[in-house]
Design goal:
single chain, alpha+beta, five-stranded mixed sheet, 8 helices, 38% helix, elongated
Length: 209
């Protein structure tokens, strides 16, 4: 029988190795200097840091005023307006960019607020139906033309249509009826007031910008 003894166990095991790696990674993320922590943070393919899922400060310029809100990066501009700022003119209907009821102006152009993330709208000018009159004397010109041409019925889609029409008006000095119809093709009215809406835009264009 051999009297040789086997090698002494060092006490270092695979389990302890993995535990040490995990503890080191945690310490690096929580105790490292900000510059190193930023490098260790999740990044997208372009190297930009990934935000969320927790709320982050989002600054929006809405109707001429800046406001900062704590929002999760997944929050849409529509939900930010309605649920966090009580600006409920833009309506949440299809929530998939087909009806136009949530239309607002982003840098003067009509967009579906349900498809724009609030965090993406930072640094851009946002206009809603609530602020449109503030840029005019009393009732907004486009809103006035809607009233004069009976361009609303139940009124649910009206705010989105007014904003889409306002965007069209700002981009055109003159337009034919067919051009107006084509230009407003992204908004739907279930009451069928398209005739009045078209004439409201034509009347607004006659008065110039």
């Amino acid at each position: 029988m051999s009297n040789r003894k086997g090698p002494e166990r060092s006490g270092f095991t695979r389990r302890r190795f993995l535990q040490g790696v995990g503890a080191g990674a945690l310490a690096a993320g929580t105790l490292a200097p900000p510059a190193l922590a930023a490098k260790l943070a999740p990044q997208d393919k372009k190297g930009a840091p990934l935000l969320g899922p927790d709320p982050v400060p989002v600054t929006l310029e809405i109707n001429g005023k800046k406001v900062t809100l704590p929002l999760e990066p997944r929050v849409t501009l529509l939900d930010a307006l309605r649920n966090h700022l009580d600006l409920t003119g833009a309506k949440k209907v299809c929530d998939r960019a087909t009806c136009g009821a949530c239309t607002v102006l982003l840098d003067g152009k009509a967009v579906y607020a349900c498809t724009v993330l609030a965090i993406e709208a930072q640094g851009r000018t946002i206009e809603t139906i609530e602020g449109l009159a503030a840029t005019n004397d009393g009732l907004a010109k486009m809103s006035h033309c809607f009233v004069e041409n009976d361009a609303q019925q139940c009124g649910f889609c009206t705010p989105g249509f007014v904003m889409a029409c306002e965007s069209f008006r700002r981009a055109h000095d003159h337009a034919t009826r067919d051009e107006v119809v084509h230009g407003l093709g992204g908004n739907l009215c279930r009451c069928g007031t398209y005739h009045g809406i078209t004439h409201a835009v034509l009347e607004a264009l006659e008065g110039g910008k």
